[in-house]
Amino acid sequence: MALYYAPEPGDNEAALARLYSVRESIDNIDAALVHLLAERFKFTKFVGRLKAEHGLPPADPARERVQIQRLRSLAAESHLDPEFAEKWFNFVVAEVIHHHVEAAEAVGERDEASDADAAPASEDIEP
Amino acid sequence: MALYYAPEPGDNEAALARLYSVRESIDNIDAALVHLLAERFKFTKFVGRLKAEHGLPPADPARERVQIQRLRSLAAESHLDPEFAEKWFNFVVAEVIHHHVEAAEAVGERDEASDADAAPASEDIEP
Fold first, then answer.
1. DSSP states of chain A as a string?
2. What is the share, in percent, of chain A residues with pLDDT greater than 70?
3. For chain A, how big is the Rg over CA atoms in Å?
4. What residues in A contact B88, CB-CB < 8 Å?
């Protein structure tokens, strides 16, 4: 691993300094991941609203299959386990569905007499 | 939502054009997320190796509590559900543990007579 040039054995001060530096990198990556996830959910919420307002079909299974294959391929390229990439995608998709259900409930509370603005059913949502 | 300036009702061509554009943005974000996750796992693998080689304690529960609180706070700032951010962190941590278990098994196969290089037990790992 090119990243790894080890401190001398027994040099615990150097090892701790390296540990704290790597933790800073992990924290930076985590902040970037959280902000990107936030941005992703803005886009998927937008898609839900756009489709509902224009009568477009909420789900697109072909698109989802392409997404998964692409993520598996990107994972393999970057030495991330493709199985994990797919599990991770499904985990994020579950949250997208959760958002759509919440949106549907909010619409239901706002206007129980009409379902014109209702969000799509949870099993039919584009991730 | 500032992002959302809607195509005219009934203008399905404009709605589809907008949809395809947003999908490109989602795909870009997903690629960035996968590459950042790959980078994060490089760092956590490095930490596991550094700690094993220098006899540093594998787990640091105080560090983990700080990580979770920080991610919840970053999520709130960026309008991401803090509960989701914490669930997401735990999901990623489960994969870190999986890596460490695999590493321990690999060491076990390589050198059954010695556990000097063994990875830490799955319940004691720094995420």
1. -TT--PPPTT-HHHHHHHHHHHHHHHHHHHHHHHHHHHHHHHHHHHHHHHHHHHT--S--HHHHHHHHHHHHHHHHHTT--HHHHHHHHHHHHHHHHHHHHHHHHHHHHH-TT--TTPPPPTTS---
2. 78
3. 21
4. 37, 91
Angle between helices B12-54 and A12-54 (to 10 degrees): 160
SS3 state at B119: coil
Contact A119, A48 (CB under 8 A): yes
pLDDT in the model for residue B110:
63
**In which residue are the tokens 């390229």 written?**
A77
Please indicate, yes or no, whether the overall pTM of this predicted structure exceeds 0.90: no
Output the six-digit token pair for A50: 């756009």
CATH architecture of residue range(s) B13-115: Up-down Bundle (1.20)
Chain A positions touching B45 (Cβ under 8 A) are 1
Asked if B43 and A26 touch (Cβ cutoff 8 Å), the reply is: yes
Q: Which chain A residue has its CA at the smallest distance from B96's CA?
A: A84
B125 and B90 in contact (C-beta within 8 Å)?
no
| Residue that has been written with the tokens 């907008």 in this structure | B18
- To probe the interface with A, which of B18, B30, B65, B70 has the most A CB atoms within 10 Å? B30
Nearest C-alpha neighbor of B38 from the set A87, A39, A2, A85:
A85
